[in-house]
């Protein structure tokens, strides 16, 4: 990788007979799980040396849609419901009936959010009970995240407009009142462990037609605004975001790594964060005020030349293997 990032391949494996459909790390990074949706195979890996720890089979004859792993549990979901395994003993712990396509553990591993189409259910995996259920008017969630105190579930919902263009809307649900909240606040987004920060301001990937971009929520605004555009010439297919970096999977299997400036000097200072979550200004004023902060910047084209790496990073191949 460019800009001083070290390049070191930890391991390479080809244990999946089908293409890898899901890959998730535990919060402490000590283990991760990969799965093939077609054959229901789940592999559990050691996060330190990349060695495979276990091969687990999802419900026979059922389609596997998603996996997630906490520091102590592995979860798998599909049309055969949800199954939980103990990561140490590898014994199944609990099952939940239903059809689920998305999963997400809370940071402490006590809660599990699961979604199917427009319905999101939150389970307490310690008591093996469903504690909340939310119905949305969307196509379902793209991703989900719990606040550290488990009081809210922040969800990036998939929306489709009248022209069938896909975009994402961020909202949150209170686990105390079981009500939907109109968009998470600046303060709430700043609490998310994996929330990408652009100069100290929370940002995330969105799209308009075939144009991907980063949008940010400034402390004095009610609505997010675009701050950086991803060049169309990258031919982005999928984006994965974490605290200080965004990985862009491009056509042909190439990966671009976008490193985010995380210091709070500059942008967040100019945004004027003083703990007041919103000044309630009209949308037109929001756009005008936001332009000096981000200038709707494009990713420098040098990224295409220096940081697009062929056959490096985590790349799915036809044999269902991956490298890291």
UniProtKB/TrEMBL annotation:
WD repeats (start-end): 13-55
Family annotation (Gene3D superfamilies): YVTN repeat-like/Quinoprotein amine dehydrogenase
Coiled coil regions, renumbered to chain: none
Keyword field: Repeat, WD repeat
Name the UniProt record assigns to this protein: Uncharacterized protein
Organism annotation: Amanita muscaria (strain Koide BX008)
């Amino acid at each position: 990788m460019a800009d001083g990032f070290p390049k070191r391949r930890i391991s390479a494996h080809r244990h999946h007979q089908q293409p890898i459909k899901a890959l998730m790390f535990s919060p402490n990074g000590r283990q991760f799980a990969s799965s093939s949706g077609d054959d229901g195979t789940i592999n559990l890996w050691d996060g330190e040396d990349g060695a495979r720890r276990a091969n687990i089979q999802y419900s026979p004859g059922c389609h596997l849609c998603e996996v997630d792993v906490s520091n102590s549990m592995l979860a798998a979901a599909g049309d055969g419901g949800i199954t939980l395994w103990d990561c140490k003993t590898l014994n199944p712990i609990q099952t939940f009936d239903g059809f689920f396509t998305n999963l997400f553990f809370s940071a402490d591993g006590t809660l599990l959010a699961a979604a199917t189409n427009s319905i999101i259910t939150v389970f307490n995996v310690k008591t093996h009970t469903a504690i909340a259920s939310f119905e949305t008017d969307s196509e379902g969630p793209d991703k989900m995240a719990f606040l550290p105190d488990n009081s809210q579930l922040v969800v990036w919902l998939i929306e489709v407009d009248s022209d069938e263009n896909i975009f994402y809307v961020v909202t949150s649900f209170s686990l105390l009142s079981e009500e939907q909240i109109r968009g998470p606040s600046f303060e709430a987004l700043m609490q998310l462990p994996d929330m990408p920060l652009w100069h100290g301001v929370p940002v995330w990937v969105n799209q308009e037609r075939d144009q991907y971009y980063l949008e940010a929520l400034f402390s004095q605004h009610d609505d997010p605004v675009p701050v950086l555009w991803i060049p169309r010439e990258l031919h982005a297919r999928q984006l994965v975001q974490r605290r200080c970096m965004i990985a862009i999977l491009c056509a042909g299997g190439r990966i671009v790594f976008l490193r985010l400036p995380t210091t709070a000097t500059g942008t967040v200072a100019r945004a004027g964060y003083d703990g007041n979550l919103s000044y309630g200004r009209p949308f037109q004023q929001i756009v005008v005020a936001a332009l000096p902060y981000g200038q709707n910047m494009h990713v420098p084209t040098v990224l295409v030349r220096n940081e697009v790496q062929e056959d490096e990073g985590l790349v799915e191949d036809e044999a269902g293997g991956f490298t890291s």
